[in-house]
Design a protein that fits this description.
The complex is a heterodimer. Chain A is of the alpha/beta class. Chain A has one domain (6-234): Rossmann fold. Helix content of chain A is 34%, strand content 25%. In chain A, a hairpin with a 6-residue loop joins β7 (108-109) and β8 (116-117). In chain A, α4 (119-132) packs across α5 (150-163). Chain B has a single domain (10-322), classed as ABC transporter involved in vitamin B12 uptake, BtuC (Orthogonal Bundle), CATH 1.10.3470. Chain B is built from 14 helices and four strands. In chain B, a hairpin with a 4-residue loop joins β2 (167-168) and β3. In chain B, 54% of the residues are buried. The chains are: A alpha/beta, B mainly alpha. The interface between A and B is large, with 38 and 37 residues.
């Protein structure tokens, strides 16, 4: 049994009088995908921000490799190997692939104040990193990021994180804005990252996507971990019900089915 | 910088539209005014305008690439002029003291602008609108209080005159043209060749991602505000030394003229896209339109119309170019949506 890379122990977070997170305890191991599920407003974003150093926990502990750590800034978290990829890839639409890949850590040649950005090297490394992750259609590092598809952008961002030595990859709803095919690409890359021994924290509210890659699942409801289970322990319906806050989803489905049965198979009219 | 020459590569250059605009304006004035404006005397007239404008337009353009705006430059020009005139003209203190104080006022106003924008997150248009008026008030109030006048004379000789406010190369070209060319070269190096430029583009593209990538966005924003305010104070100071006097008014025209030059030069108003070379072309285009009209038979009152049409045309063209640049290689590699 491998030790967890990143662990939260009893983390609480409140903004003034508002408690956002209660007593969160989670851990993620290398080569494991932890899926954080939850409806909008369940506290997923705040939890990511705590793990990536944007916010500090009000109380509780963050551990890396068993040692207590604190991330006063995103930079410290990044240096510790925690990398966050946001919904739209966190990339820069009007920058070239090479330039956006190396933002903040540009490869250079030359000396002192006369260092020169090494475009060729940046482009070559960026293209290779993306292709190694299985996106072979990207071959021109001068292409603007905005010209890529949503899935390619996500893949570029994930490749970037992997290239820069991320040990924990936090993916914030990477598939939310994507079509089915594009989402499949991203899921494949999540698997590739996992195969390379990264710990992946995959935030989503699409249960199908979570079940496709997840090893370990945690459901957040109103800032607390409502369920914490391993792959295969729960069915999709059970998870959806949990996320929606109990049996309400099942009863809604039953209601719709009942309506359709008594109205010649027509769904109910949309609410006014 | 240009290893591959594909149509996509050319379109991706923000200055592509600006270069076409410049060519269009050159052709227009060559047809209607002959080639007089391309002879030395004619060139000096628009080069002088372009130089004074360009020294301000480039740092302003960089701020716009970074997603900010600084309209307080309109007040910094008379502030710089008046400071050097009051210190070295009215009080008769050494010119170098006047120069140092004028430039340090630029640094101070830039710091105030930058820190306010970073700390309060109030849009920079509003912050610098405030400092535009505040600085105008300071210039008018202090000048009248100290000198009992709104115009101060200044006589400068020696190296300071030669360096900041003299004519060179046959007595028609302002020394500012050399400053402009030198500074443009420096800006091109730092923005497009050194790695720092990447940070400015990243910041304008997506500030939060840029910060998460470890770029010191706050410090960079403040530095850019200091750069634009100090550049404006520098231009004002040089004008006072050149014309041997400073007025409290004037300088407001720099606000719109610089923004027009920057936009014609292909900088995206919402940030993240543009180039120093583009701004350079945009500034020359603007200067040729304002000065070239004198060499045609048109009444010069029409020059604003030309500038307005030019601005709209440039924005539309730059938008089209940007869209083409985004899709350039996507098509070549086979469509996929």
């Amino acid at each position: 049994m491998t030790a967890p890379i990143l662990a939260l122990r009893g983390v609480n977070k409140s903004f003034g009088p508002i408690d956002v997170l209660h007593d969160i305890t989670l851990e993620v191991k290398p080569g494991e995908v932890l899926c954080l599920l939850g409806d909008n407003g369940a506290g997923k974003s705040t939890l990511i921000k705590i793990m990536s150093g944007v916010h500090q926990p009000s109380s509780g502990m963050i551990e890396m490799d068993g040692q207590p750590v604190s991330f006063p800034t995103p930079r410290v978290a990044a240096e510790a190997g925690i990398s966050t990829v946001h919904q739209f890839g966190g990339t820069f639409p009007l920058m070239s692939i090479g330039r956006s890949f190396f933002v903040g850590v540009e490869p250079t040649w030359g000396w002192g104040p006369f260092r020169v950005y090494d475009r060729k090297r940046a482009n070559a490394i960026a293209v290779k990193a993306v292709q190694d992750m299985g996106i072979t259609r990207i071959s021109d590092g001068d292409r603007l990021v905005g010209g890529l598809s949503g899935g390619e952008r996500q893949s570029l961002a994930i490749a970037r994180a992997v290239h820069f030595g991320a040990r924990v990859l936090i993916l914030d709803e990477p598939t939310a804005a994507l079509g089915v095919k594009q989402a499949t690409h991203v899921l494949r890359i999540v698997n590739e990252a996992k195969r390379r021994g990264l710990a992946v924290i995959f935030i989503t509210h699409q249960v199908m996507h979570a079940m496709a890659v997840g090893d370990h699942f945690a459901v957040l409801i109103r800032g607390a971990v409502a369920a914490d289970f391993k792959k295969g322990e729960k069915t999709r319906e059970e998870i959806t019900d949990l996320m929606a806050g109990g049996a309400s989803m099942a009863s809604l489905e039953a209601e719709i089915e009942g309506f359709m049965a008594s109205h010649d198979g027509h769904p109910p009219p949309p609410a006014e | 910088m240009s290893a591959s020459f594909s149509p996509g590569g050319l379109l991706r250059r923000p200055e592509a539209g600006a270069a076409l605009g410049l060519i269009a304006v050159l052709v227009f004035f060559a047809i209607f005014g002959g080639l007089t404006f391309l002879k030395p005397a004619g060139m000096a007239s628009w080069l002088n305008v372009a130089a004074n404008l360009g020294v301000i337009a480039i740092p302003l353009g960089l701020l716009m690439i970074a997603g900010e705006l600084d309209i307080s430059v309109g007040a910094m020009v008379p502030f710089g002029a008046m400071t050097v005139a009051v210190i070295s003209g009215h009080y008769g203190l050494p010119i170098w003291l006047g120069v140092a104080v004028a430039l340090s006022f630029g640094v101070i106003v830039g710091l105030v602008n930058g820190v306010l924008v970073v700390k309060t997150a109030v849009p920079s248009l509003i912050v610098t609108l405030g400092s535009l008026f505040a600085v105008q008030g300071i210039v008018l109030g202090l000048t009248v209080l100290i000198t009992k006048s709104t115009s101060v004379a200044l006589t400068v000789e020696g190296p300071a005159k030669a360096l900041f406010g003299d004519f060179v190369l046959g007595g028609q070209l302002q020394v500012m043209v050399l400053w402009w060319l030198g500074l443009s070269a420096l800006y091109i190096f730092f923005v497009h060749v050194s790695p720092f430029g990447n940070w400015i583009f990243a910041m304008g593209g997506d500030k939060v991602s840029a910060r998460n990538a470890g770029i010191p966005t706050d410090r960079l924003t403040i530095i850019l505000f200091v750069l634009s305010a100090t550049s404006a104070a520098f231009v004002g100071m040089c004008q006072a030394i050149l014309y041997n006097s400073a007025q409290v008014a004037g300088g407001q025209s720099f606000i719109f003229n610089a923004i027009i030059s920057v936009v014609v030069g292909g900088v995206l108003l919402t940030g993240g896209f543009g180039s120093v070379v583009g701004i350079f072309f945009g500034t020359i285009t603007f200067a040729i339109v304002t000065q070239g009209i004198y060499y045609t038979d048109f009444d010069r009152n029409w020059s604003s119309l030309i500038i307005g049409v030019l601005l709209l045309g440039a924005v539309l063209m730059n938008n089209t170019f940007r869209k083409m640049a985004l899709s350039a290689t996507t098509k070549k590699k086979g469509a996929k949506v």
